[in-house]
Design brief:
Function: Reversible hydration of carbon dioxide.
Distance between the termini: 12 Å
Bound molecules: zinc ion
Strand order of the largest sheet: 2-1-3-4-5
Number of helices: 11
Helix content: 40-55%
Binding site for Zn(2+): 114, 116, 167, 170
Largest sheet: 5 strands, mixed
Protein name: Carbonic anhydrase
Region (Disordered): 1-21
CATH class: Alpha Beta
Biased composition (Polar residues): 1-10
Order of helices and strands: HHHEHEHEHHHHHHEE
Strand content: 5-15%
Structural class: alpha/beta
Mean pLDDT: 81
Number of strands: 5
CATH topology: Beta-carbonic Anhydrase, Chain A
Low-confidence stretches: 5-45
Number of domains: 1
Length: 277
């Protein structure tokens, strides 16, 4: 899983209060109607899946600042597995949690994701208030401002995983591939995606033609290439470089599948999973 090489350089309210309620199993199922159980096919969660949910919830809530970057990433991916199985634990989504973190946030994960409404990080990874430092922008592009936000998350907030999360059928990538001119500031957004498109274009003319014709599988190739490119841009940050060198963080590229809900890891930098840092 490689993100490719990079050249070090610096890239140019108050929540609505609800009735306080104790943490309980009922609390963990308020926001979602459970999907069909993986155990018996019924629409109601089985005893086994409910027990599994309790176990997942306890595990998520026991993750502390002492966890390694690898453990934090594993915890995040397990959240996606719960979401996929229709067994989301909905941790940290009660009023008690809101009050607990009102003075200081301490999320362990930062995500640079697309603004697309179909990719809400907390839901996809089954997280809650104060768990994920999320930066969202169309095309999940690592502009200087977005990278600066991630630098803040690493330096001051203390996150241990920085993830660039792209997704299939990305409208920003599709717009960039069209080659059309756009009004307002949209062109500046598209400019950030041109490198990924150029990389795929350089594969061969037939593939480029398929992409421009809207071939979904080829579209996904551009999305993946874009994630890897934005990871490289993040890697140019001297702040992130230093945190990677000290093994304090993992920098990860991933893609969310709109059809399946699954998150696929594309590349990892730092820690024991380092590939050509
Ligand atoms: Zn998108």
């Amino acid at each position: 899983m490689g993100c490719g090489a990079s050249t070090p350089q610096q890239p140019g309210g108050v929540p609505v209060k609800v009735s306080p309620a104790p943490v309980s199993e009922a609390n963990t199922t308020l926001n979602f109607a459970p999907r069909a159980s993986v155990d018996d096919g019924s629409v109601l969660p089985s005893a086994r899946s409910m027990a599994g949910r309790r176990s997942s919830l306890e595990k998520v809530m026991s993750l502390t600042e002492r966890a390694s970057p690898e453990q934090v990433l594993q915890n995040l991916l397990e959240g996606n597995q719960r979401f996929l199985a229709g067994e989301s634990a909905h941790p940290h989504q009660d009023w008690e949690r809101v009050q607990q973190i009102s003075a200081k946030q301490k999320p362990l994960v930062a995500i640079l994701g697309c603004a697309d409404s179909r990719v809400p990080a907390e839901i996809v990874f089954d997280q809650g208030f104060g768990d994920v430092f999320v930066c969202r922008i169309a095309g999940n592009i690592a502009t200087a401002e977005e990278v600066a936000s991630l630098e803040y998350a690493v330096l001051d907030v203390g996150v241990k995983v920085v993830m660039v999360l792209g997704h299939t059928k990305c409208g920003a990538v599709k717009a960039a591939l069209s080659g059309n001119a756009f009004p307002g500031f949209i062109d500046t957004l598209v400019d950030h995606l041109d490198v990924a498109i150029a990389r795929v274009d350089s594969m061969n003319a037939k593939q480029a033609e398929a992409i421009k014709a809207g071939d979904p599988s080829m579209m996904d190739k551009v999305v993946k290439e874009n994630v890897k490119y934005q990871v490289q841009r993040c890697q140019r940050s001297v702040v992130i470089q230093e945190a990677l060198r000290k093994r304090q963080v993992l920098l990860v590229g991933a893609m969310y599948n709109l059809d399946t809900g699954k998150v696929q890891i594309l590349c990892t930098k730092g820690g024991v999973a380092d590939d050509a840092l």
